[in-house]
């Protein structure tokens, strides 16, 4: 039985006719001659006008010419096919006009058939040769583009991949990295369904086979389509050398990624934290503190990120970002004080609790107040921007807080986990650090699920380095691939896991970055500031920053111990703390805060004009006298030059934030209602304070009826 089967497979019961298959030289000639004979006999019998056969032949010749040109057939192939049609049509026309059933007609038709068969055979051979020549030319072009060096590399790696992975690739290009630290190979995988991960999974073996130095890897990734592979081969160990944080402090965005370090090919790696949390693990001495500073540097550069830091280890992770600004050591190019590099620093359980409660209030409040905005933008993710910044909560040794059995720490842990759980869409994400990737850290589902940006700083430490647990699904990671301080493995959902190193960043550079990025920091959006309330507005006030006193160089012991080195900047606050008046329990909160604010500005402010002699009592304490002893400069928080001495009528403490916001609003200024919403006060109180600020020259009132605004003098 014969079965019509378009695939042409041979089924049981006999050979298969493939009606869809094209003609070969013999079947083509047979088809043409039998067709012409049938048309001629039928036409002659029915007295069809012979011109029709010629017209049909001409149409066939035209159709085949167009099809041949489209298929980019050679000119001679196209001409042969057209000629066959025309000859066939010419014979049919002649036979119809005379008689097809004569020996002359039949003999000439047979000769025509043989001619067509021979011509078709020769054009088929010609087309085949042309195709082979085109392939060979492409190969020659690839070879010509590969220089002698590149050809040697290509041959070596084709051979290596063959030996190690058992597949033969065809190298299309070799590109040397501009950094001179390695090269990339673009190769075609063999037919038969080989995928790039056949090579990727054998990367450590390839690295070993190529005798690459420690810290260098051969990493396979997908090419431009699934049949291609890119192999990045690092030949110089950039991880061994120390590289400082790049000095371009230009603006960044959480949406376009924040650089955290560089790969073995010296390319920077960006992390995308709009929706992801991060976990940074590093034992002591691995470079974890340095890494935290690199992370804070990136956030400081982001125009849509406010960084809130919790470090229960005396706030040390955040201090270099806060003290130089608050102690007045830094000034903007125009001489104005600068804002700290981070927006809030909590060093105690109490302050951390206040911060976390504020974050949770913000997340919940944003969910309701920004409903309309999200509906308009047709998104269920809060559109983060400089106007509505993302809050990045960085918790140093936060993973240890999460796993602590201490009752107070457990409360903090609960709040941190709640932030991770509820605040993704509302633009609050966390970066937690940990000393080790212990089971209790990674056993936490919330961390495993939300913290997909992961860093393991090894610094050569092998104890407790469970890389498989940190980077599940990855194979072949070994601590000895990244044995240097500040180096390790970094994985992001976008790039997968790979060896990396953080840039080195020292206090001087942190100060530079704080100064260079102060103008980039966003202001917390008014609804969030209102939800955070006084807890946020008063975060830098005296009672809340008292702990800074212990950290700034001169504790009480050293105060009484005699002379201090003149060059040691810091806040000599312990003595001043003793001078602080007792708080009246029922004092009005604003008045009390204002008094503390005035006190801290007066006592710790950058009140010393260069060359101004210190007050006699301080002079006594500070023999030999320090040339300049900068203190906590709260005017930095207002982003403007304050008079040297804080005037007693400098307004309520929230005024600093209000003036800051008004300055940021530029020439447009802010309406009193917007300021009231921002600082969480009623409009009457706000209006009174703003008017007083106008009288003091700190603001300008632009009267415009219902559109009246307050403008900063710089923009008036
Ligand atoms: N990216 C880096 N490049 C070069 N050296 C680094 C890098 N990071 C850290 N180091 C070196 O490692 C030392 C320890 O770094 P760091 O203080 O950041 O480690 P740590 O893990 O926080 O240690 P500890 O917890 O003991 O403070 C630094 O003094 C520095 O010499």
Automatic annotation (TrEMBL):
Compositionally skewed regions (Low complexity) per UniProt: 550-560
The protein's UniProt keywords, in alphabetical order, are: ATP-binding, Nucleotide-binding
Q: Where is the FtsK domain?
A: 266-466
Which PROSITE patterns does the entry mention? Answer: FTSK
Keyword Membrane appears in the UniProt entry: no
Return the annotated region ranges for Disordered.
550-569, 604-653
Residues annotated as binding ATP are 282-289
**Protein name stated in the entry:** FtsK domain-containing protein
Which organism was this protein described from?
A: Streptomyces glaucosporus
